[in-house]
Design goal:
The complex is a heterodimer of chains A (111) and B (165). With 111 residues, chain A is mainly alpha-helical. In chain A, 67% of the residues lie in helices and 11% in strands. Classes of the chains: A mainly alpha (111), B alpha+beta (165).
C-alpha cells in the first residue's frame, strides 16, 4: 500500500474479472456475508476458486473481513472505487466537457 | 450483539500522521474543508455532545440549521472515536435512535501511511444507514455518504485541497 499506482493496479486488476465483479455486486446487495453464503452465489466455481477471488479483492481493499463470533464475514469497501472515480473518471469527463466548450468557442469565433 | 447486515465498513489509507487525521476529523475548522463541509463540533469525552451544523448552501435549500446531533461514547486521541449519529434532516431519521459511528486510526509499519477505518453500526437506524452509505449512482452530488467524505478527507490531507475546490 505504499504506492498509489500500485494501489490503482490492484483495484483495476480486481475489477477486471466478471466473477469478482459479481461478488462485489452481491456484497453491495447484502453486506457482511460468509464464504459459504458467497459460494452459493457462484455455483460455477469451486470453494477454492471463490477464496482465490476474495483474496484478490481483499488485497485491493475492496473487501474487508471481520470475525464475528466463529464466523468470518466479508464486507464491501467502496472507497477504492470512489478514489478511482475521483482520480481517473472525473478528470477525463471534465476534460471532455471543457474540450466541447473550447470547440464551441472556436466555432463561434469563426462564424 | 450486532447483526452482521447492520454493519458497514469503509477504509482508506492516507499519507498523513494519526494526529493529522484525528485533527481533521474532530476539529470544527477542518470539518468545514472536506466532504459536505458542514461545521461539526465534538466535546471529546465520553458523554460529550456532537453537533453537525448545516452549511449556508444547505440552509438555502431548506435544511435545518443543525443537521446531526450525537453523543460521544469514546474519545481516545489519536486512535479511536466513537459517537452516535442522529440525523436531524429527515422525519424518518429523527424517529430512529441513531447510528453508532466508530473511527479507527492505525499507523502502518512503513511508507508513512495511516489506515483509517470507519465502522457504522446501524443500532436500529436503517434509514440513517442508507444516507451514510451514499448512493453510487449519484457520486457527484449529495448522494456520496462516507465513501465521498473519506475520499475527500484523503485528498485534502495529501494535497491540501478538497476535490470540490
Amino acid at each position: 500500500m505504499s504506492n498509489e499506482d500500485t494501489d490503482d493496479d490492484l483495484v483495476f486488476k480486481a475489477l477486471s474479472d466478471p466473477s469478482r465483479r459479481l461478488l462485489l455486486d452481491r456484497l453491495f446487495e447484502q453486506d457482511g456475508r460468509t464464504l459459504v453464503n458467497l459460494e452459493a452465489e457462484l455455483p460455477h466455481l469451486t470453494r477454492f476458486g471463490v477464496m482465490k477471488h476474495l483474496k484478490v479483492l481483499e488485497e485491493a481493499d475492496l473487501v474487508i473481513t471481520e470475525k464475528v463470533g466463529r464466523e468470518k464475514l466479508h464486507y464491501l469497501n467502496p472507497v477504492p472505487i470512489r478514489l478511482l472515480h475521483d482520480r481517473w473518471i472525473d478528470k477525463y469527463t471534465e476534460r471532455r466537457v471543457s474540450a466541447l466548450v473550447d470547440l464551441k468557442h472556436q466555432l463561434e469565433k469563426q462564424a | 450483539m450486532s447483526n452482521a447486515t447492520d454493519t458497514q465498513i469503509f477504509r482508506v489509507y492516507i499519507r498523513a500522521t494519526p494526529d493529522a487525521i484525528w485533527e481533521a476529523i474532530t476539529s470544527p475548522e477542518w470539518t468545514e474543508q472536506y466532504g459536505y463541509k458542514g461545521r461539526t463540533e465534538y466535546e471529546l469525552r465520553a458523554g460529550g455532545s456532537v453537533v453537525g451544523h448545516a452549511t449556508k448552501e444547505m440552509i438555502d435549500f431548506g435544511a435545518p440549521a443543525i443537521m446531526v446531533k450525537g453523543e460521544v461514547l469514546e474519545a481516545d486521541a489519536p486512535k479511536k472515536l466513537v459517537h452516535t449519529f442522529h440525523a436531524q434532516f429527515n422525519p424518518e431519521t429523527i424517529a430512529e435512535p441513531g447510528v453508532i459511528v466508530t473511527y479507527l486510526i492505525e499507523p502502518e509499519d512503513a511508507g508513512g501511511l495511516t489506515k483509517l477505518t470507519v465502522v457504522n453500526d446501524a443500532n436500529g437506524s436503517p434509514i440513517t444507514m442508507g444516507f451514510l452509505a451514499g448512493s453510487p449512482g449519484q457520486l457527484s452530488d449529495g448522494g456520496g455518504g462516507y465513501p465521498f467524505i473519506i475520499s475527500d478527507l484523503k485528498t485534502l490531507l495529501e494535497t491540501g485541497k478538497s476535490l470540490q475546490d
